[in-house]
Amino acid sequence: MSSVTTQAIDDILVVLVNNPPVNALSWHVRQGIADAIEQGLADPVVHAIVLRCEGTTFIAGADITEFGKPAQGPDFNKVLGLIEGAAKPVVGAIHGTALGGGLETALVCHYRIAVPSAKLGVPEVKLGLLPGAGGTQRLPRIVGVESAATMCALGEPVSASKALQMGLIDRLANENNLADDALAFAREVIATGPRATRDLPVKGDVGVIDQLKQMNARKWKGFEAPYANLACVEAATKLSFEDGMKFERTEFLKLMGGSQSAAQRHMFFAERQAAKIDGLPKDLPLRPVNTVGVIGAGTMGGGISMNFLAKGIPVTIVEMVQENLDRGVAVIRKNYEASAAKGRFTTEQVEGMMALLTPSLSLDALAGCDLVIEAVYENMDVKKEVFSKLDQICKPGAILASNTSYLNVDEIAAATSRPQDVVGMHFFSPANVMKLLEVVRGEKTAPDVLATAMATGKKIGKVAVVAGVCDGFIGNRMLSKRQQPAMQLLLEGATPAQIDKVHTDFGMPMGPFQMSDLAGLDIGWHRDPARIESIRDGLCAAGRFGQKNGKGFYDYDEKRVGTPSAEALAIIEEFRATSNLPKRDISDQEIVERTLYPMVNEGYHILEEGKAQRASDIDVVWIYGYGWPIYRGGPMFWGDLEGAGKIVEALERHGVPVADSLKAKA
Ligand code: 3H9
């Protein structure tokens, strides 16, 4: 069946797009729309045209799978020019999402009508792009510079009611009657005739552009696309429509040809791919998850609980000691209230979520839970004890999950008589904020348990990735390949600040030592100040435990801003001197080669061992769990950009054993 069909109803021609799943503007859709509009213009019986979509949504944008491939079919801007220049009025009828090229199509329609549930936006910036089919030039003519700049630079869609207020649509349709309401609207506008957006004056003031840049300076650090979007909107205020379009084209092509957009488009598909479990049918029946138990009311357990409460799922939270339980519950309330103060929740919503929380001092309270997540102290014996108790207490079929960040899930599962029901659900701190969830598949984990854990992650707004059982799973396993050489580099003469700066310049939120300070240097410390076997021992012996007590590799002020510490540097130097390694200048390039390349290498090892399903899953882990800059597409994508040959050569030069599959690629 053709992806664009027409239907004549009296003197109105309805053009219907049908290109599942999201009615993207694939080349045959562009061709179909152009043909249909020409048909309508040529037919003397037709007095107006309605452009509408079948399925769940209006056009959700250009077909991203076509990007980077040889052009096929008619030029999109020409098709849009045809609609805008039509001598008969064209009405865009919107449901679902009108996004990117979809909204640009709606913008060249002479009138727009949408159902109340519709959303309209230009999310190209999230793909490292800008609306490249006149969006940056037509939006300021319809909604004004302020709204256009905000929509283009942030990429967030607006609701239909907001769109009506802004003048982005002309009318709201009845939610269930778009087809008829659009027809009626088309009949009305026959008398008014067509009106081309390009002929409208640009409204509003460019002051908002500087404001947006200031407000988002931190968030946009390293990104090209937000600035290019704003430059185009600004150009609309200064140039003619034609020249503005040329400016937009040039900027669009620059972004499209660059590595940032390639990386962000890679991540768009990677994120969706991660949800798929190889070898399992998509429609595998899932286990119900209507009640959740969380063991441990510390930072992790509390953060995990918040995810479920926010989705209306009741949580029973268990702690051993009343005081810790009370503290944990109070922290959850405090966090919600802080969000409410920022306008994210109403007071009633906060109370509603808190009412779903049942604190308990007994594991027996978890007997009826569909899913229990253990978030206790990271110690195998403790975890085994908890799981063997859960085995006695929990109802048959309940999913028993461990939030362990590196322990062997199979060993934990073996402490129960139902290893098929055990799975790892590794959240990242702060668990109510970080988007990543590593779902660890044990040797005996049942397929429906794995699929349910993945689906549960999605339900609570996480990006879930399947990982195999190995030390540290995907994320922390690779992290250790960065932290170890970073420490070694200190022994050879680099400073924490130099190494961290290479990482933050690269786009990471923090470097290896800033991260260690945040996590706490005394984690796993033997607590004997006389025993100094590492730099960390030296720092701990001097009472430098990290951010928590204001001093670690750095000194921290009351706002937790770190500055290089003379005392820490002296401790490092003292220990360094005992290593007998000659002190030398370390270049930033060497820091990249020794701390980032080994991560890529470890990614290949992980794939070889089958501990990740695909390279793009590893990228998802690093982007959503550790803040790897999305414009660099994750370590595996970045490794490909750097080039396997260059990485292998450097790793071998530094004596790092190279994964066979990486070598084979070089
Ligand atoms: C653009 O328009 C540039 C213009 O300015 C023109 C310049 C010249 N293309 O997300 P879902 C696939 S740039 C191809 O799970 P949902 C997606 O991969 C574009 N494929 O569904 C997935 O495939 P699979 C601007 C696309 O209901 C399936 O559809 N537009 C596209 O949760 C379902 O997707 C955007 O950036 C596409 N454009 O959410 C919008 N979009 O099943 C991007 C989706 O094989 N899309 N697919 O994994 C979205 O934000 C969401 O998909 C949407 C639906 C909200 C529409």
TrEMBL record:
Per the UniProt record, the source organism is Sphingorhabdus profundilacus
Tell me how this protein assembles.
Monomer.
Protein name in UniProt: 3-hydroxyacyl-CoA dehydrogenase
InterPro entries per the UniProt record, alphabetical: 3-OHacyl-CoA_DH_NAD-bd (IPR006176), 3HC_DH_C (IPR006108), 6-PGluconate_DH-like_C_sf (IPR008927), ClpP/crotonase-like_dom_sf (IPR029045), Enoyl-CoA_hyd/isom_CS (IPR018376), Enoyl-CoA_hydra/iso (IPR001753), NAD(P)-bd_dom_sf (IPR036291)
Query: Would I find Oxidoreductase among this entry's keywords?
Result: yes
Q: Which domain of life is it from?
A: Bacteria
Pathway in which the depicted protein is active:
Lipid metabolism; fatty acid beta-oxidation
Keyword list (alphabetical) reads: Fatty acid metabolism, Isomerase, Lipid degradation, Lipid metabolism, Lyase, Multifunctional enzyme, NAD, Oxidoreductase, Peroxisome
* Residues of the 3-hydroxyacyl-CoA dehydrogenase C-terminal domain: 472-556
Q: Where in the cell is it found?
A: Peroxisome
Spans through the membrane: none
Predominant location: other
